[in-house]
């Protein structure tokens, strides 16, 4: 199981941490098609949505490199 080994065709999804081929780019990160669908279909009142937001926070809040 070397799912974290990203080749040039595979990118590691920020939500499920799996290397996937299909997905969308959000800022500098990648979200796979499956997680994108999950995110869209998850109600904002669902606790799972908060989990996604926590994951996405890493994406939407750029880290200041010092
Ligand atoms: Zn994913």
Q: What would you say this structure looks like, in words?
A:
35% of the residues lie in helices and 18% in strands. The chain has one domain (11-60). The mean pLDDT is 83. The strands form 2 sheets. Strands 1-2 form a two-stranded antiparallel sheet. The protein has a two-stranded antiparallel sheet with strand order 3-4. The radius of gyration is 13 Å and the shape is flat. It has 2 helices and 4 strands, in the order E-E-E-E-H-H. Strand 3 and strand 4 form a beta hairpin. The protein is α+β, with helices and mostly antiparallel strands and 66 residues long. The longest helix is centred in the last third of the chain and has 14 residues, at 47-60. The structure holds zinc ion. Zinc ion binds next to helix 1.
Number of folding domains? 1
Q: How do the strands line up in the largest sheet?
A: 1-2
What is the rounded distance between the termini? 34 Å
Q: Which percent bin holds the helix content?
A: 25-40%
Q: Could you tell me which ligands this complex binds, including any ions or cofactors?
A: zinc ion
Mean pLDDT across the residues is 83
For the report, how would you describe the main beta sheet? 2 strands, antiparallel
Count of helical regions:
2
Q: Into which percentage range does the β-strand content fall?
A: 15-25%
> What's the total count of β strands?
4
Tell me the series of helices and strands, N- to C-terminal: EEEEHH
Q: Name the overall outline.
A: flat
Structural class: alpha+beta
Low-confidence stretches: none
Rg (C-alpha, Å): 13 Å
Pfam families: Gin (PF10764)
Protein name: Sigma factor G inhibitor Gin
Organism: Bacillus mesophilum
């Amino acid at each position: 199981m070397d799912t974290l080994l990203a080749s040039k065709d595979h990118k590691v999804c920020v939500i499920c941490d799996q290397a996937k081929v299909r997905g969308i780019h959000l800022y500098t990160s990648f979200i796979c098609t499956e997680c994108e669908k999950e995110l869209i279909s998850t109600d904002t009142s669902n606790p799972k949505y908060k989990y996604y937001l926590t994951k996405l926070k890493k994406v939407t809040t750029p880290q200041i490199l010092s």
